Amino acid sequence: MFQADYHLKELSMGEYEQPVLGMRSSFDMDKGKEGTWCGREWFVVRKAEMHRSQDGVLVPFVKMGVEAREQALSPEGRLEDTPVTLPNHPLVQYAEAFTRYFDLIAERKSVIYQLREVAKASMMAKYLLESGIQLGDAWFDLAPCAESACCMEVPQLWNVRRCVNICVKDGEIVDGRSEDAEKGVKSSVAVVYGGVDFGIDRFRLAAPSRVAASVVAGRAALARPASSLMATSAAGL
């Protein structure tokens, strides 16, 4: 989840080429505008269901997306969500575009694909707990237990982009001592915070609906994305 959130910040601020042709970064949408803005964007699960095939196989189904909120400094000096985030905010526009192409991006970016698989596993675990299903000990011995260092602190990610335009007047750069300094030097700052919040508590997974066996076979036959973080498809959009 940490890597997926990190890569989302890189894509939204234009650090890498966009995974879908026609997508623009939030920085490109805001290019040429003055002012400073702060915001946060994070991954969410928009829809979660449990399906069951004809032969009794449970198949988790999730639809994921990205949400964004504009932030401002409170009187106490803390960043807080603004009461209203305009739909034309560059971060909101990027979140909507990322959500629209989420499944396609997941097939081209392995880190997004793995995030979606973690969401499916979380939904499966929630369904098993809510249904009171008892699993045998054999299910917990499928892989050897490996002791690894566990960091109890959740890292916070942010990305800051500053743009300064310097104008020239009569062959000279307008500096801070000129009366036209405000017109000559224009700057803008964009700050993005974020994280991952599946919000699985919002879902109540009832009895799973049936899904055709051919659908299960089709999902199993889908090729996994490349292991590289920056793997992209050379064809298509």
How are the elements arranged and paired?
Elements: H1 2-12, H2 26-29, E1 35-52, E2 58-73, E3 79-81, H3 90-100, H4 102-108, H5 110-131, E4 157-166, E5 168-169, E6 172-173, H6 181-184, E7 185-196, E8 209-210, H7 213-221
Parallel strand pairs: 1-7, 1-8
Antiparallel strand pairs: 1-2, 2-3, 4-7, 5-6
Helix pairs in contact: 4-5
Structure characterization notes:
With 237 residues, the chain is an alpha/beta fold. 29% of the residues lie in helices and 27% in strands. It contains seven helices and eight strands; from the N terminus they run ααβββαααβββαββα. The strands form two sheets. Strands 1, 2, 3, 4, 7 and 8 form a six-stranded mixed sheet that branches. Strands 5-6 form a two-stranded antiparallel ribbon. β2 (58-73) and β3 (79-81) form a beta hairpin. α4 (102-108) packs across α5 (110-131). The radius of gyration is 23 Å and the shape is elongated.
